[in-house]
């Protein structure tokens, strides 16, 4: 379809008149570029209505209570029978051209000139999404409407360590009173390990054992919560944001239920998800089954939800 460019005028009416004069079809639709979300379906309904009556406009009912403010006085106005007018507006072109040429250029829309010329006008139900970008908040809403869908990934982490004498029991960075602790190359904080592997798995990154191998003496006795901080930064650098982490500890002994909330707070401090908590910790008994049930070991599962926030290179979502 050929596009004809015409010079605009000082007022909206001048610009519309120039455009209608330059058009050549029997019918014309006049649309505000500030309404970028007009649908093809609305255009088709307007065309059908205009072909039947000569002119058609989209209207939306007013949902807000109306008030008039004059001289500091606020007066309620009835909203029954009051509608907001949208574009595009469809007309028989020659009649619209005559109506515009006889009307002042200050008309607020083409329907005003059409009605003033005595022509029939058919109302068509408009679309809420077809709003006009007028205020700053409108622009923000438009950005949300055209933004690509949020991408999410889920990862699972698991760790298990034996309980042995002469080791501290450290879970989520907290030292737990216990005659037995977890054996391991680092401080053996299996909660931090499971959460880290869940985050890395969701982001598609190497697991904790490859990033911080037990064969590397630099990590002997390392604080696992510090390693988790490195993992969180790594995941964010790759364009992912932790949204939620769910942790399940399997423990027969010691009794860890009363410490779940404190462990969640400690993990929240490392994850830094923003407003509100983003980590939930719970403990399940092994019901005296196997090594866990005999109190010989602890195990931990973690599930992490990551949201795609930005490109790791461009910073764009």
Notes on the protein architecture:
The chain is elongated and about 95 Å long. 32% of the residues lie in helices and 26% in strands. It has two domains: 12-146, Spore Coat Polysaccharide Biosynthesis Protein SpsA, Chain A (Alpha-Beta Complex); 152-308, 60s Ribosomal Protein L30, Chain: A. The strands form four sheets. Strands 1, 2, 5, 6 and 7 form a five-stranded mixed beta sheet that branches. Strands 11-8-14-12-13 form a five-stranded mixed beta sheet. The chain has a two-stranded antiparallel ribbon with strand order 3-4. It is an alpha+beta fold. The longest helix is centred in the N-terminal third of the chain and has 14 residues, at 40-53. Helix 3 crosses helix 4.
Sum this structure up briefly.
The chain is of the alpha+beta class. The protein has helices at 12-22, 40-53, 93-102, 110-116, 136-146, 190-203, 208-211, 224-237, 260-271, 290-293, and strands at residues 27-30, 55-61, 66-70, 73-77, 83-85, 89-92, 122-125, 152-165, 169-171, 174-176, 180-182, 240-250, 279-284, 297-308. Strand 12 (240-250), helix 9 (260-271) and strand 13 form a beta-alpha-beta unit.
Q: How is the topology of this model organized?
A:
Elements: H1 12-22, E1 27-30, H2 40-53, E2 55-61, E3 66-70, E4 73-77, E5 83-85, E6 89-92, H3 93-102, H4 110-116, E7 122-125, H5 136-146, E8 152-165, E9 169-171, E10 174-176, E11 180-182, H6 190-203, H7 208-211, H8 224-237, E12 240-250, H9 260-271, E13 279-284, H10 290-293, E14 297-308
